[in-house]
Prior knowledge:
This protein is mainly beta. It has eight domains: 20-105, Immunoglobulin-like; 112-204, Immunoglobulins (Immunoglobulin-like, Sandwich), CATH 2.60.40.10; 208-294, Sandwich (Immunoglobulin-like), CATH 2.60.40; 301-386, Immunoglobulin-like, CATH 2.60.40; 391-478, Immunoglobulin-like (Sandwich), CATH 2.60.40.10; 485-577, Immunoglobulin-like, CATH 2.60.40.10; 583-672, Immunoglobulins (Immunoglobulin-like); 686-804, Immunoglobulin-like (Sandwich). Helix content is 6%, strand content 57%. It contains five helices and 63 strands. Strand 27 (329-336) and strand 28 (339-347) form a beta hairpin. 28% of the residues are buried. Bound molecules: 2-acetamido-2-deoxy-beta-D-glucopyranose (NAG) (10 copies). The site of one 2-acetamido-2-deoxy-beta-D-glucopyranose has 5 residues, from loops.
Amino acid sequence: MDSALLLTLLLPVAVVSHVLDLPSQVLFKVGDRRELTCSMSSCPEKVKFVWTTIEDRPLFTTTDSRDRESVMVFDSVMKNHENIILCKATCGKETKHAATTVKVYSFPKNPVISGHDSLKLGEENVLRCEVSSIHPLELLEVQWLYGDTVLQTYEGEFEGDAYSFPFIFTPSNKDDGKAITCRASLRVDGIPADEMTKETSVPMTVLSAPHNVKVSGVTAVPLGSSLTLTCEAEGKPKPAFTWTALKPDGQSVEMGKHQDLFMQDVSLSDAGTYQCDVSNDLGSQKASISVVVQAPPMDTLIVASPQSTLKEGDSVSISCNSSGVPVTHVVLSRRVNGVKTEIMSSEGAETSVTIDSVKLADSGMFVCEAFNDYGSQETTLNLTVEAHLLEVALQPDDEVVLEKGSSLILSCQASGCPQPKFSWKNLSNMPILSRLKTDGFRSQLVFDLVELEDEGTYLCEVTCGSIKKSKQTEVKVFSFPTSPVVKNSGPSLVGEMMKLTCTAQEVFPANLFQILWMDGEREVHLETGSFSSGTINLTSVYSYHVNTEDQDKRITCKVLLEMRGVPADQAVKTASTTLSIYYPPRATSITVSPLTELKEGESVSISCLSDSFPVGRTVLSRVMNGGQTELMTSDGLETLFTIPSVELDDSGVYVCETSNMYGSHNNSVEITVKAPPRNTTVEIFPSTDVQEGQNITICCRSVSFPPPTVVLNKLDSEKNVYSLDGVFLMINLTPNDTGLYQINVTNYLGYETEIFNISVLEKRVNPPLGWNDFLIPAICLGVAAALLGVVVYVWRARKKGSYDLTKCNLSTV
Ligand SMILES: *[C@@H]1O[C@H](CO)[C@@H](O)[C@H](O)[C@H]1NC(C)=O
Ligand SMILES: *[C@@H]1O[C@H](CO)[C@@H](O)[C@H](O)[C@H]1NC(C)=O
Ligand SMILES: *[C@@H]1O[C@H](CO)[C@@H](O)[C@H](O)[C@H]1NC(C)=O
Ligand SMILES: *[C@@H]1O[C@H](CO)[C@@H](O)[C@H](O)[C@H]1NC(C)=O
Ligand SMILES: *[C@@H]1O[C@H](CO)[C@@H](O)[C@H](O)[C@H]1NC(C)=O
Ligand SMILES: *[C@@H]1O[C@H](CO)[C@@H](O)[C@H](O)[C@H]1NC(C)=O
Ligand SMILES: *[C@@H]1O[C@H](CO)[C@@H](O)[C@H](O)[C@H]1NC(C)=O
Ligand SMILES: *[C@@H]1O[C@H](CO)[C@@H](O)[C@H](O)[C@H]1NC(C)=O
Ligand SMILES: *[C@@H]1O[C@H](CO)[C@@H](O)[C@H](O)[C@H]1NC(C)=O
Ligand SMILES: CC(=O)N[C@H]1CO[C@H](CO)[C@@H](O)[C@@H]1O
């Protein structure tokens, strides 16, 4: 509300006797402690004060009313203390009013500038000026000043409490360090002059990347002197410097971090490009400078390639160059006895010469001289040319022994020589041109099939430049292709001379061969071959008397080649033969099992055993009456004949005869078969019934062996009559002779009896003779013989298939 209007309203009321004292207007500063005193000094009594405000807002003040004045205390002035404050004072019955307008201002601090300390050169930068706690704001004026020049002014209505006033500025280099000012003015009436305007000045900092980089210094320095290079640059913040040497090989070496680069005693390697790197937070820049070191030629090299020590015939390149410093020309010369002879010269830093095939005379000193404006340099090279260390190796070495028909390669190897020349010769120095294979460092003499004619000494000669060397090998050939062959000239008959022939076929050299005959492990005969110019069949004959013990004997023919160098397995070959000895049958034996004396019915085996070679034929026969009956023949050494059950007539002589183509041999044995008497028959002639005085012949037959004893007795008598032949003669019989008779046929194996009746009819003429009287011993013997004869006869008769009894009759007389 307008205070002037208010005053107008109140004025008519104020026309009183008492004066109320109150300033009509006060200006307070925010934060201050201020008092407003309302007094009515004219009132004699205690005045009653009432404070009110026009704008109805709390005042946050305290009042202290005394008798005639009241003090309103503003402990700390605030913006909203702005108001129209009414003081109503009552003195007695009189009341007076007074009003005061309270104005408040706030301008506590100087403006604050920001953004001034990192301005970017040439760019739009925003600087800010900040003012705060200003009141009343509408009376604020802010100005940016550069020196005394106002650049920008802000005034008018603002809102808020703190304010930022931008100033857009594009600085140049010269602005760096210059002051910029922000001035704030609060145009309040009654404000003290020193509080009305506040300003802040700050120096501006303009930042820039390095620029205007310059490197200075001397660019050509004599060797050994010192060198200073300086790097200059602008930029903020102050840039850092880095010196780097850029080497020709692309490497870079940091040299220092100062603005100046100082080098003492400059060497050749110091020549080159130096770069100064300048950098700060905003960027970097660089500049470089080339430094030349002035020096006489250096690093002058003379080099022999591939090397300086050479072999005769090698190729060499001698090159001369000077690489240390620039050189105008180089000269390559030969120096002999201190006198130089130029070989080659070139403009520039290098020259070279190539010798395709060096000679021993090329040995010596070579000089390379390099020149430039500052002087010259000389280097030397000793070239050494040596003869080749030629070595020749011939394989096989010295001597080689090999079999005819095998293959041979004589390999000659040259070492120590780059281009050896080979030639082959025999001992008569005749060159060998065929069968050669030469290839680089090796030459081969090839024999696909070695013949006897290839024997000889071969020489491989190698030439290398001025050197010549040779090696020789003697080739020896032998022939011993097969195992020997042993032959027997004919059948080996016991007791005769046997001839064995051993042949070693196609052997060479025969005089070095030996044929050794061996009987098992025993050496029995040795024969040595004699000289021959070619291969021969070498034969040895071994003869000796053959004995039966030699059967199956192993005779070996061992052929030995006594030649040095022949492999052991090829130097000996053998052939063997197993003797087969022929002989006629011998020691033929005949054996009878179990016994040669047997009883009829027993079993007997007759075996023949013979020894002969080849095995012959064995015949087993029985001898009978001077003739032989074959019982069995066999082709083996042993013959076995078995009679399962023998009979008497199996008795006899048995002969085994073995024969082969060389003869025969026999042996015999006698077998006797025994049997007790049997099949006894008694025959009585003329009859058993006779007249007195007649004779009777009793014929007794029996089968037995050994021959039996025959006893005749009359059963009622005690007399026995013996007969060996079984024939009894009874003469002049009498009736008393009538009776029963018994014949007892006995051998030690047993007996057999026969009983028979004889009856004699009486005839009264002659006196009868007694039984005993007519036994005549002589007759008995005869009868005995007859009986034996009968036995034999019977055995024969059977073979003839009939009986013949006439014999009995004959012997019975
Ligand atoms: C000079 O010779 C040396 C040794 O052979 C070689 O390494 C170098 O590269 C040569 N320099 C020039 C410029 O030919
Ligand atoms: C070269 O050879 C000569 C004589 O043989 C010798 O005196 C000299 O020292 C040698 N020089 C070199 C660099 O080997
Ligand atoms: C050398 O070879 C020649 C021709 O091949 C020949 O006539 C001569 O017998 C050989 N001499 C010797 C020792 O082998
Ligand atoms: C050696 O014997 C073999 C076989 O019997 C024959 O072919 C060859 O001709 C003989 N050689 C000589 C040199 O007699
Ligand atoms: C037995 O051998 C001898 C003498 O060799 C001979 O006289 C005899 O006749 C042979 N006997 C037979 C039966 O062969
Ligand atoms: C012997 O007698 C037996 C019967 O007892 C007869 O079988 C056999 O043939 C006779 N032998 C002879 C030789 O008479
Ligand atoms: C009987 O035998 C005797 C003597 O041998 C003889 O003398 C006699 O004459 C015989 N008698 C008859 C009848 O044959
Ligand atoms: C026959 O003779 C033998 C031997 O003399 C005798 O042992 C046996 O008893 C005789 N036999 C008879 C029947 O008399
Ligand atoms: C012998 O004769 C007598 C009387 O005649 C008789 O009994 C007996 O059997 C006869 N014996 C023989 C063996 O004939
Ligand atoms: C001749 C003979 O001796 N006759 C005798 C036969 O036997 C009788 C009786 O024993 C005898 O008396 C005979 O003398």
